[in-house]
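2024-03-11 09:14:02 INFO queue: dequeued item Transmembrane 9 superfamily member, len=627
2024-03-11 09:14:02 INFO validating residues
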Amino acid sequence: MVTLTSRVIGTLVASILVAIASAPVPASAFYIPGLTPTVYKDNDRLPLYVNKIYSKKSPLDYSYADLPFVCSPPKDAKKAWLNLGEVLRGDRISSSNYELIVGKDEKCKTLCTKTVAAEDAALAKDFISNEYSVEWIVDNLPAATRYSVGDKTDKKRKQYEAGFALGKMKYGKININNHVTIRILYQVQPGHPDGKLIVGFEVYPLSILGESCPDEGKLLDFQPLIEKTTDITYTYSVLWLEDKDVTWSTRWNLYLVNTDTQVHWYSIVNSMVIMLFLTGMVAIIIMRTLNKDIALYNEEEMKDEHDDTTGWKLVHGDVFRTPKYSSLLCCLLGSGVQILAMALTTILFALVGVLNPSYRGGFVSFGLFLFVFAGCFAGYYSARLYKVFKGTSWTKNAILTGTLVPGFLMTIVFLLNLFVWSQNSSNAIPFGTFFALVVMWFGISLPLNLAGAYFGQRKAVIEHPGRTNQIPRQIPEPVWYLRPYFAMAMGGLLPFAVIFIELFFILKSIWEGQYYYMFGFLSLVFMILLVTCVEMTIVIVYFQLCDEDYNWWWRSFLASAFSAVYIFVYSMIYFFKQLSIDHFVPGLIYFANSFMICTAYGLLTGTAGFISTYWFVRRIYSAVKID
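2024-03-11 09:14:37 INFO prediction written
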């Protein structure tokens, strides 16, 4: 045991070192939770980083520094160290040749004159027609354009839309924005008049012809993109403005879209009503019907009449019979426990403020690392259930648990990445990052899975009340509403009804570039979802057992997991109603990612339903006297 433990620890440490080397952490110039704000003084150089271009019409992002029609980065440009989440979301952060000197305004300063070939101009026109926006970063703030919200009866307030347009359509021509006015908003550091804190980064683009400066009130010619080689001059202006209304601690509030919280509360109330309805059903089953059944079955004078009765007790000799494909069920449930542990921990981190929108890539990074380290829970639970099913090779089951679902998802990611590579998008996963993912899988998750399975198989087998008959009991023809497909469809409907309103905002944050920050609502909806899955599955399995159908193992997993099918259908409706994606590869990316998300969601909800139902079935059969 000591040798096995030392090998596991050694493999774990080595794998962590390789993963850290392959997937570096953010540089200190960027926001990490807990760091104090950066204080700038007059004449200090404020670095401006260029990141990527992105669009609501396409999930394909492109590195801004690699665009052939913009000014090339300086020769000494440095690529920022990115965390794993930043790489996977398509970030490619690089230093630029924009010179921002603290406290110094600039008027129409020339950045460069770029010779743009005809094919590069055609590429720029394609990006602009698809409404691509540019993301730059200053002091960890993304560039934003300003707009006002409110009406005449309500005081108008400032709001930010992240990014700025790469170009625009005007008078039937596509024009590129080759001039930007950069507004840096600052706040004087309390107690230090010479110190400045950056509280806003606004960029207002213009398309101007030649090297003319955009004077206020003067109509300028636009810089069109034409089908021949042309020279485009890029210029910029810088304004430093003191903003006394925004503080450093509240500067991100302007980026968060003020959705009506009443909609979220409506979602919570809707979910609560469904949950309370199910709670009432479960209470009636347990407190009335079930107690009455148990009292009836336990009456001594009724023993001789049990063979003539009907109900769930009649299948006591078959209810714990090992199901078909029991090893596969163990693997799926192990992965479900792993995803459930990851989801609960990630939401907890988000709820306490560690994972906030300013921590770029934090959600993905934390989620992946928590999933990897939750492999021990997957191996433990899968091994315990495998022992219940009288499995003979716990190591084979542990390896299958650690490779089946992750391998399936990794295969999809690899194949999808080939299509993304063909588009030269920054969303393509680099070889080093892909290698880091594989190392995390085989070097950390799988060994932890084996370690969890080792301790799980050493535990005493879970005892079941009563013995299993050697000859399976014949199952009567079920009533129409208890047929497997109908029961699963009904079992997944209510969990979907609990989350479909909040699901709309989650999809907008994923596919339309909005920041999601309603983590309090998300945690409430998630807990209600779990309770709904538990109660719905218990009700379905109870009625199934009352109908003398003892094949409940897979039904308890698939009933609540079926809500993933409804979510996938909803994502299809969202695709055609909300998005404007009309190319093959972007559409493939959308549906492949939606399928993987729904797979993980189905495993999570199915596992929650199975664990609770397994406990319920053992409890009710241990409460009756069985010969």
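2024-03-11 09:14:37 INFO annotate: The longest helix spans residues 584-622.
2024-03-11 09:14:38 INFO item closed
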